[in-house]
Amino acid sequence: MTKPLDQTAALSGLTKVQFIALMAMLMSINAISIDIMLPGLQEIGASLGVSDENDRQYVISAYLVGMGFAQLFFGPLSDRLGRKAPLIGGLTLYALCALAIVFVPTFTMLLLLRFVQGVGAAATRVVTVSVVRDVYGGRQMAEIMSLVMMVFMIVPVIAPSIGQLIMIFAEWRMIFVVIALFALAISVPVATRLRETLAPTHRRAFTAAVILDGFRVVLTNRIALFYTLATSVLLGALFGFINSAQQILVGVYGLGIWFPVVFASFAGMMAVASFTNSRLVQRFGMRALSHTALLGFTLASFVWVAVSLLGTLPLPLFVIVYAAVMFQFGLMAANFNAMAMEPLGHVAGTASSVLGFMQTIGGGVIGAFIGQAFNGSVTPLAIGSFAVGVLAVVFVLVAERGRLFRPHNPAG
């Protein structure tokens, strides 16, 4: 079958493999912006006079807030101007902020620049999802997004190790030089190889009325809204772990420089799950796989809460339980996003921005709450995961009118 290859090449100017690789690298901007600096958070705090170790988590939260709100701007803009111009502009802003952070004298200035850097990164999240939706739909979109997520998840596997390596030979400021160069490197194929995927007939005026109408379309679509809410709360559990990962793996378990290895194992489980989903989704469908994974996520989190209440989990048991939770997350993420975007192809840019805003801000706020609840144990993280699992089940039941596992798209 050559249709997917021909379709991808015709619409994007890239082969299917090249297309997936570039979309994954664009999505990975946000992963590397967070994960590469986890080994350096302690030194950042010490260098800039941060006394409360939980305050170091704001380096992550400021970025997420900037990225979340800016998606509301980049989505409608990409529906008006096309996908490439906003994407290149966002990458440029991201790289300039990263370089500026190298020279910051205070923690407050660092947080401000991280916020603006998140604004630039918003373009990569919104436009990437919009481009995939321009080219694919239905189960094909879920398959492509799963492959994108699989490659995207390789970044959290290696990013902390890169950050740790940088910290061995240089100070934390060099981390921001590296991520600036990464963004500039990605901008080259975007500018020279990626074709504009938004057809001129699908462009929308960039006016307040049109933007608000696009928001109305998104927020009044039951499936799009409630799958987005489900994704938002589940991301809260992931962000909660990322916020407190250094404190848990170094502070509680004393891993020291081996922290990136264990962190990578969790990201690796999500990558395996994304690849598994890409192989199975055409056969079984998005709902069968993601609904099963959602129930598995909630059950595994419940077991985690019960075990953690007995005392500090031994490291091997913690790794097994949390890896099981993350595997289920990997089976849900791409499918939930694809199902939310499926009915909104005619306003893909605006839809992607509203969905991304809700997911990033909602997940970021919940994640910050979970992270700030860190008390020297993994129990708050376990309780947070179980709570968001229950909420996600409720949201999915509303989206599906109380019936799980019903296929909506034919295989093919």
Short description:
79% of the residues lie in helices and 0% in strands. With 412 residues, the chain is an all-alpha fold.
Distance between the termini: 11 Å
At CATH level 3, the topology is Growth Hormone, Chain: A
Structural class: mainly alpha
Strand segment tally = 0
DSSP helix fraction = over 70%
Our Rg estimate from Cα atoms comes to: 20 Å
Uncertain runs: 1-5
Share in β-strands: under 5%
InterPro entries: Efflux_drug-R_Bcr/CmlA, MFS, MFS_dom, MFS_trans_sf
Keywords: Cell inner membrane, Cell membrane, Membrane, Transmembrane, Transmembrane helix, Transport
Organism: Sinorhizobium numidicum
Transmembrane segments: 20-38, 58-75, 87-105, 111-132, 144-169, 175-194, 224-242, 248-276, 288-307, 313-334, 354-374, 380-399
Provide keyphrases for this structure.
412 residues, mainly alpha, Growth Hormone, Chain: A, 79% helix
Characterise the protein shown here.
The protein has 412 residues and is mainly α. It has a single domain (14-399), classed as MFS general substrate transporter like domains (Growth Hormone, Chain: A, Up-down Bundle), CATH 1.20.1250. 79% of the residues lie in helices and 0% in strands. The chain is built from 15 helices and no strands. α5 (84-101) packs antiparallel against α8, α9 crosses α14 (348-372) and α10 (222-252) packs antiparallel against α13 (315-341). The chain is globular. The N and C termini lie close together (11 Å). The relative contact order is 0.16. Residues 1-5 have low confidence and may be disordered.
